[in-house]
Specification:
It is built from 21 helices and no strands. The chain has helices at about 1-20, 20-50, 55-80, 100-110, 115-125, 135-165, 170-185, 185-200, 205-210, 220-225, 230-260, 285-300, 300-310, 310-320, 330-340, 345-350, 355-360, 365-395, 400-425, 445-475, 475-520. The longest helix has about 45 residues, at about 475-520.
Length: about 525
């Protein structure tokens, strides 16, 4: 049965390559990239073994092995469903022994570029002790145990958490959160470099401690034998075998549950959320539109993406300004993003926009309800950001200009978006898709219109921003008050005018908007 599952995986892989030339090209590029990494690892380990520094060899091999195991266990949760050719639930209709299925799925997990590369790197880890035959043999055994921990642990974790990570809500949240490390790549790399330099002397001790954990025990086996610590080596073997036993037990129990779980059930029982916002807002047309918009802000990952990047922007400003006065502008940046995010409100409705036409919903009602939701959500986020930056910088004397600028920019963004969203619609990610994907069909004209809208937003906000910056620099009370009054006044006026102009445009172009949205499908 195990051999049959491996052949099945190879057959599915071959058939997939035959159907798509680009998949074959991608595989070849992946193989070339993996071979370059494996080759570099082998050369590095051989050079490391030539050095008369067993402590350095232990540190490098154990820490590298820990990262490898962590990658096998965690990355499938982020990319869940990418490779589901041998999903255990596909075998629920066959009378298979779980023992045979476990063995076959483990071996099949090594079929592919990541599996082969892991086997090669795991075996090559022993080369760090190539001058000591006993340590070399122990290193090979440790590599075998380490690869087994990688594959079995990966299968156990993904099977156990399949009811959670397979759900739409988890995928949406993961898609939103995945952008955070990408936006913070620069600060993270700089911080990691500085951090490693600061703790370099402690890394050998960290490697020794990790060598007694399930993640690092297999990789420390060769180092212990090289040092003549046979008792410690035996302990590492016991830790590795106990880890594998626990992982197999967890995987067996999770697989047993997966084989009897109703298809599509995902182990989740839906519960009614009641009326939600519809039960809290006034029972009026405007209240209904606002409740629907607030529900989208809560449940739609595309809206949540605007909120998810807020802490990222605050951290970036803190990093750029080193916690100084630059951080006071975080509320303004957040307000800018939150306010202008409503410019795609109608496009995000997708074909569900027909319900507004069928109701029918008056333009004033539609624009006012959406603006209310945007101001509520944006107001909460902006207020939290302002409180945070004022507390961190201890600039409570700057409350008036900071509040005036941030809430003024938010209101201006909502007002202008009330017009823009019914003037321009363009392809956006569909409901349930990655909110950061870029759909085909976005034209150069759309980019120009977006740029023009942002320039108008900046122009309307200039008086408020000018007064706010002047107040922060000069610390004059009159300028503080003017920044607050002008910011809130211009913002309120923009919201009122934007709702009226947007309502007229909506009433005139609503059927055309729906037709344009349907053309994107």
């Amino acid at each position: 049965m195990a051999a049959h599952l491996v052949r099945l995986k190879l057959t599915l892989l071959r058939n997939g390559l035959r159907r798509s030339v680009w998949r074959l090209v991608g595989l070849l590029l992946g193989v070339a990239y993996a071979l370059s990494l494996v080759g570099a690892a082998v050369v590095g380990l051989v050079v490391l073994g030539a050095q008369d520094d067993p402590e350095l060899a232990r540190t490098v091999v154990v820490l590298g092995g820990v990262v490898l195991v962590a990658g096998w266990w965690l990355l499938p949760l982020v990319a869940f469903g990418v490779d589901s050719t041998l999903d255990p639930e596909r075998f629920r209709v066959f009378a298979l022994r779980r023992r045979h299925l476990l063995t076959g799925l483990t071996l099949a997990g090594l079929v592919g570029v990541p599996g082969v590369a892991t086997v090669l790197v795991g075996g090559a880890s022993a080369l760090a002790w190539w001058r000591d035959p006993a340590a070399l043999a122990a290193g090979v055994l440790g590599g075998v145990l380490g690869v087994a921990v990688c594959v079995v642990g990966s299968r156990a974790v993904t099977t156990l958490l399949a009811p959670v990570v397979g759900g739409r809500r988890f995928r949406e949240v993961a898609a939103v959160l995945a952008i955070v490390p990408l936006m913070l790549a620069g600060p993270i790399l700089l911080g990691a470099t500085a951090g490693l330099a600061a703790v370099a002397d402690a890394l050998p001790e960290v490697a020794r401690l990790l060598g007694w954990t399930p993640f690092g025990a297999p990789w420390a086996l060769g180092a212990d034998v090289a040092e003549g610590a046979w008792a410690a080596a035996a302990g590492k073997v016991l830790v590795s075998l106990a880890t594998l036993a626990v992982l197999v037990l967890v995987w067996d129990r999770a697989l047993s549950a997966a084989m009897v779980r109703p298809e599509g059930g995902g182990g989740h029982v839906s519960r009614s959320a009641g009326l939600g916002f519809f039960g809290r807002l006034p029972a009026t047309p405007t209240g209904a539109v606002a409740a629907r918009a607030l529900t989208y802000w809560l449940r739609d990952s595309r809206y949540a993406a605007a909120v998810a990047v807020v802490p990222v922007m605050v951290l970036l400003l803190w990093f750029l300004g080193r916690g100084g006065a630059v951080l006071l502008g975080a509320g303004v940046v957040v307000a800018f993003v939150m306010g202008w995010s409503l410019s795609t409100d109608v496009a995000y409705d997708d074909t569900a926009f027909w319900t507004h036409l069928a109701a029918p919903v008056d333009g004033r009602v539609d624009r006012a309800g959406r603006a209310y939701a945007g101001l509520v959500v944006g107001g909460v986020v902006v207020a939290a950001t302002d409180l945070l930056v004022l507390g961190v910088t201890q600039r409570w004397d700057a409350v008036l200009p900071v509040v005036g600028m941030s809430f003024g920019v938010l209101a201006v963004g909502v007002g202008l978006s009330s017009v823009y969203s019914v003037r321009v619609v363009y392809p956006v990610p569909k409901p349930g898709e990655n909110p950061f994907s870029t759909p085909q069909g976005s034209s150069f004209a759309v980019m120009l219109s977006q740029t023009a809208g942002l320039l108008v937003l900046l122009a309307v906000c200039l008086p408020t921003l000018g007064l706010g910056v002047a107040a922060l620099v000069t610390d004059v009370l009159l300028l503080d008050v003017l920044a607050l009054v002008v910011g809130l006044g211009v913002g309120a006026a923009t919201v009122v005018v934007g709702i009226r102009l947007g309502a007229r445009t909506y009433d005139r172009r609503a059927p055309e908007l729906l037709q344009t949205i349907r053309s994107f499908a």
